[in-house]
Specification:
The structure holds three protein chains of three kinds.
Chain A (H helix, E strand, L loop, with lengths): L1 H21 L1 H20 L4 H25 L3 H5 L2 H7 L4 H31 L9 H23 L6 H29 L5 H28 L1
Helix pairs in contact in A: 1-6, 2-3, 2-6, 3-6, 3-7, 3-8, 6-7, 6-9, 7-8, 7-9, 8-9
Chain B lengths: L1 H41 L1
Chain C lengths: L3 H23 L13 H28 L2 H33 L7 H22 L5 H29 L13 H45 L14
Helix pairs in contact in C: 1-6, 2-3, 2-5, 2-6, 3-4, 3-6, 4-5
The chains are: A mainly alpha, B mainly alpha, C mainly alpha.
Chain lengths: 225, 43, 237
Amino acid sequence: MNTIASLTRATLAKDLRLEWRSKDAINSMLFFSLLVVVIFSFSFDPTAEESRQIAGGLVWVAFLFAAVVALNQTWAREMRNQVLDAYRVSPAPPNALFLAKVLGNFIFVTVLQALMTPLFIVFYNLRALGPAYQLPIVAALGTWALVVNGTFFAAMSLRTRSREIMLPLLLFPISIPALLAMVEATGAILTGEFSAKFWIVLLAAYDVVFTIASLFLFGFVLQAE
Amino acid sequence: MKYLYAAYIATWAIHVGYLGTLLRRYVRLRDEIQEFKTRIEDK
Amino acid sequence: MKRVFPILAVLTAGLLSYALYEALVAAPTEQTMGDVQRIFYYHVPSAWTAFILFFVNFFASIAYLIWRNTKADMVALVTAEVGVIFCTVVLVTGPIWARPVWGIWWTWDLRLTLTLVLWLIYVSYLVLRRFSSSGQTPLLAAVLAVFGALDVPLVYFSIWFFRTQHPQPVVGGGGSIDPRMLHVLLINWLAFSCFAALVCWSRYRLEALRREVDETLALEALLDPSQAKTSRSRSAG
C-alpha cells in the first residue's frame, strides 16, 4: 500500500511538473473549450429562463470535448519514451501509474472548469436558483467519472488504428448514465425545479463502480500492450 | 397498415442483409483456401 | 456444414412462418392501436433475444478473462455481432411503431433507450475488435464487455429516473396482456431464438474456419517467406 501511494505521488508530481512547464494540455483544452462556448453562444440566444435549463447540457458538452483533448494526450509521452515497456518489466504495481494518470487528468480538467465557469456565467447570464453549493460536488463527481473511464480507454486505444477516434467512441456510450446525471443535476441546481440528490447519488455510485473496475482490470490492459 | 408491413419487411431485410455478408465472407474464405491449395500443390 | 444443420434450418424456417401467421392473422386485434400493434410480436422477441445474446457475451468475456479460452472469445464475438443485429431490429421497429401510435418517431422509453445504449456500447465493442491489432484484441474486447455489463444497471436507473422527471410515452404497451397475445408473443420468441441460435452457429463456424486459415497462412509465411502472402480479407470479425 505504501508503494502505491508514493509511486502515485511521484508519477503525478512528474506529470504536473511537465505540464506546468509546457502547458501543452491546458492550452489546447482551454482554446477548444472557448471555441465551443462561442459557437454555442451563436447558435442559441436564449432568455435567462431558457439558458438555465439548457446550460447543464451545454456546459458538460464543452467540458466533455475538452476532457477528450486531455485524455488523448494522457499516454502519449509514455508511448514516445517506451515507459510502458519499462513499467511492465518492473515490479511496480500498475495501479499506481493508472491512479497517477487519472489524478493528473482530473486536475487538468478541474483547472479548466475553474477557468471556464466565469465565462459560462457571463455568456449565458447564469445564476443558480437552487442550492449552488452542490455544483462543485456535481463537477467533481462528474469529472471523475469522465476521467477514470477516459484514462482507462485511452490506455486500451493505444495499439488500435485511429487511436484518437477510438477513445471517444469507447468512452461516450459507457459514459451515458454519468453524462445524463451530470446534465440533469446541473440543470436541476440552476433551475431549482428539481432536487439533484438522486443524480448526485447515481454519479457517486458510477464513480465507485468504475474506479474499482478500472483498478481491477488495468493490469490486464497494461500487459496487453 | 403500411407501418406494420414496413416493420416486418425491415426486420427481415436486416436479417437477410447480415446473412448475406456471412455468405460473402464464406465464399471469399473458400476461394482463399482453394488458392492456397493450388499454391501448395504447385511447389 | 454438418448434416443436422439443414434439417434445423428447415424446421426453424417453418417455425418462423407459423409464428408470422400467428402474428399477422391469428392473434386478436388490439383495441386501441389496431393492427399496427402487431409490430409488437417482432419488436419484443427481438429485444429479449438481443438481451440474452449480450448476456451470453458477458459470461463468455469473463470466461476468457479467467481462462484465456479461445472458444470463449469466439462465442463472445459471435454473440456480440448477432446481438447487434437483433438490437438494430428493435431500434428500427420501435420508431416505426411509435410513429402511427403517438405521432412521434422517437421517445425516451425505458426499453428503447436501454436498447439504444446497449447498441452503442456493442457497436463500439465491434469497432474495437476490428481496429485493434490481433494480439490483444480478445483481451481488450473482453474488458470492454465487462465495463459494458457494469454500465447496464446504471443506465437502467438513470433512464428510469429521467422518465419520472420528464414523463414520456411508453412503447410496447404497459400493463397486463391478453393471454392469446402472450401465446403469440412466446411463439415468435421461440422462433426467433431458434433463428438466432442457428445464425450464431453459422457465424461461429465461419470464425473458426477464418482463424484456421489465418494460422495456416501465418505458418506458411514463417516456413517459406518467399511465398509469403497475407490473407486478402483480413477481417477480424
